[in-house]
Amino acid sequence: MLALGTLSSFSRLKSLAGRSFNMPLPEQLQGHAVHGYTVAKTLRKWQDVERSCDVLEIWAGVGSVASAARKLSLSAREIELHRVPGRTDDPTNKETEDLMCEQGVANALKALMSVKVGGLVMMGPVCSSWVFMNSSRCCRTHDNIWGDVTYGPVQEGNHFANCMVLFLLVSDARGLHAVCEQPKGSTMWKLPPVSLALDHLQLTSTQTPRCAFDRKPFGQRFLKVFKLYGPSWILDMCRTCKCPNAKHRALVKTSADGSVTGIHDALTESGAYPKAMGHALVRSWLKGLGAAAPLLHQKGQKRKASPEPVRKKPAASSGHFALASLPMSCVQQCGSWKKPGLNLCAPEASSEGLPKKRKHASDTWQKPSLSFKPCSSFASAKSGQCLQANWMQPALSLETDAANDTLQKVHCEHHEISLDAGMLGLLLPSDAPENSYGTHAKDPGRIASVLKGRCGCCRNCFKDQKAKLVEEIAALWHGLSEEQQTQYLQGQWQGPLAPEAAEAASHRTQWRLGGKSICLRGLASLLGTAERTLQKRLKGVLDMRKNHLQSGSLGRQAPKQQAIIDLFFSELYHSVAEDLPEIRREESATEFAESLEDAFYWTPEACLAQNIAALQSPQRPQGRVRTLPPGRPILLFLQFKAWWAANQSMLQRSGSPEGQICAQMPSWSTWWRMWVNKWSSLLSFRKASQHKDCNSCFEMRQLLQKSSVSRAEKASLALQLQEHLRSQYHDRMVYWALRHSSQRRSGVVSIMIDAMDRGKTVWPAYPWHKSPASLQGLCRPQLILTGALVHGWFMGMYFQDARLHHGASAHLEIIFRCIDKVMSMAAQAGCDFPKHLHIQADNTTSAVKNQYLTQAAAYLTGTGRFLSVTCGFLVEGHTHEDLDRTFAYVNQKVICSKTVETPGDFKAALLQELQPIASHKGEDLVVEEVRHVHDFREWLSALKVTPTGCYMTHKGGGNQKRPAAHSFVYKTHADLLPKEIEKITRPRRAAISAAEDVYAILKGRMYMTESLPPVLVLPKSVLEAAQLPPLPTQIFKAEPPSDDDKVVLSKLAQYLDSQAVGMTRAAAEIRERYLSDDPDAAVPAAPPLLWLQGQPPVHREVIPVTRNMYYEHLPDDSWPMLVKFHR
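Request: output the structure for the sequence above.
Response:
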């Protein structure tokens, strides 16, 4: 049996490293398991996890190694019990990092599997039971290294040792660089599983004192010697103690009787790695990979030489990917002289691969080295792909794929911050008295003295600055308050929205003073302030002295201001924010989709009051993260100011002190603290490319960022944006009310219909992420998934082949099928068939919002099958609702997680994953494949009625845009209200109208109470003259593939039928559907649509007028008042 399973992708790499991959594990390690997880099970369970992490630190403590990696723009992650109190230390939490429980071990293994090839894994298990300090209680001896297994710390230490062994073996199987750390006197290395694993992996050991990396004054450092096991490059971590007179801070104390007791605080502090040690470890690892040059010298600083370590003789073939052990001849011969690789070494390099000498070592950041560029792995060395040492685009990604070795580039955010007199002059100066610092900073003599010197950078930024302009800008800058300065810089900063996001990307900020480029140090000198102050203003660093959310004592004014800000964010959370997930490739689609299930069990009309009360609590609220439209916090603050102005009369009402909510608008600093400490964990800004954005929102947000727009105009724009967002939420509430009526079955049936992006639904779904070259150009068949949520009745999922007609007729086909299903369900349940139909759909004119839906709705109303038909459409860019949430769930649980070979498998997967959600809502689940589509367009054309002009936005007179209608109501003349009849134009009103004539009543938005004049769309005489048959006679079928497509499908079926792929069912389905002589033989007959063939009611009821202010013809579901009189 092969060691650790058959991983063919790594066998080539390890054979190049000098170790045979067929080397079997020792018998004692073959069945090594922790909570049932073995190496083979781990590799099987998370084999599809995306490898996106560069550095993983387990038992991280203060996270020095991960932090050092992030400073080099590498992706890093920590596994630490107390990293997030209340979450990672809770064994019952899914995100727990408690390695004593099964879930914690599973999360750690999953994180380990996500590390890239050649990535660093640092492990420092708890050492309390392995050292001399507690040996009397642990009872670990040479004969009994396991110790007293009834003692809690011993049980924990043994378990952690077994975990470390498992992590080492998995790291070896995944091609990672694993490093283990324990104190010098630890006995963990003698534990049989640990000893066997170290011998099997042939790791190298070295020792290094903690004080060599500490930056505290001599005498206050701890003499704690760490012992490290890792690849051969770990020898670079060897250091010696250089403390004068070997004076160190004590870790133990000795009593009068000679007993030794550890100092708890000192022992805890000494266990944390200094920051310098984390940096040294990461740099040694990168140096071992050969990727250190573009990282360590990207700032033009020469690395100080470390003392020469006392090297131990490394074990044979230690470190599977250590580039230093690769013979130089192997690197030189990696590219053929006939077909050189894309990034071959420069010809100027010497034969030994050494860089040429330069006069100044600091010039390396300006002139990238043309010497040998080391390869990222043995696979890339073999294929001739080498790293390019470029200081502007450092090669930081170390992942090597077995099929195609690629190198990822670090994303770098660029920002430009400009201090201009014209822009600063738009801000009102602060009313606060000026302090001595501001007076000194604006002193012309000081500024002139600074300009005579140098800024300290190589460009000498002062040479382009004029004294008069600098004096003017300095006076304007120091005339602003701290909050105004922060707002000004934040308005131009395009960086992350939360402090933890700042580590995800590298940032380059270009400062400008008066339109001239200047370095940060020079700008701070001219302004008379500190660099750190400007950086804190720029990135919104909180003043923790005013952090009311975590402070023990609260003033009276702070809770009032916080309550106002909470009210604003709560309104955003329940209106603008959406709980749709990001459609992206996750490490585990199953785990990500499980987090979406709660979204289906949440209804705003059921628990809105409870949600608001929970969100406005002083503590950090717990809830689902929702997304806001693309933007930045400073734009939210401008929106908050407009919201405050609009509600000022309500918020600042007079009366008793208890009735006065807040005397003045909360400041920027208070608002920013509430955002960072509380609301940034619940609200995030959606990426611009994720969903279609609203045109109005986009235009107003862009204008708010323009420096040329005045403050008054920005305030007006922010108010307009707030009203726009409120109106779209109002539309949603109207839809929710209609959905609720349908769920109560109070005479209305509401259908939400939309189609999913067909680019996601192709079959068969390959079980691998990257397709081989032989499949390139072999396009797979596509399916179109259309969802129809018939609220209160059933959840419908209808899919069809992309070759079948999928326009307006296809959507009408599904709508009529849904109505037919409702009729049969009502007959079985013995309840009345709904009298009113409501259709909620997307704004796409090619699907539902078009003349064909108008004709169909008028036909259903005119024939009396429904008393009224109402069609509602949300505003473009704000249409994401419960059906889009369902599509996101299907994408994660079915499309990204299931291996679907045939359309039948797709149907079975939909039934399996959506059945629990439908059952929870008390509804049925209907999943059907649509093989026939009736030609409703040809059928409705017999009416000879063509409504136009209201479905899309048009430009009217004066080049002004007239928005399209978003609400359509169809009812007969007999059911029109008196105020609606008065709006009908005089010629039409004077004409004799039949009671059964169908009129369309349009509104600009669903929430509006005023409508346009009714328009006659289907007179009774026209309907009788048309004599439409009960069903369309024309039926669309899937178009047969062309000859070229048949050739491609035939090749695809042949490849799927091969032994290497083994998708025989998919191959047979393709041949039956597309390549057979009679593909229609297996297609079932078209559904009968009995509801449409049945006779309409003979007597038409009159629609009663209700108290529904939006749609008077629909029932009002509010509870009536009941009064009981007692005798």
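The CA atoms of residues 762 and 782 lie 4 Å apart.
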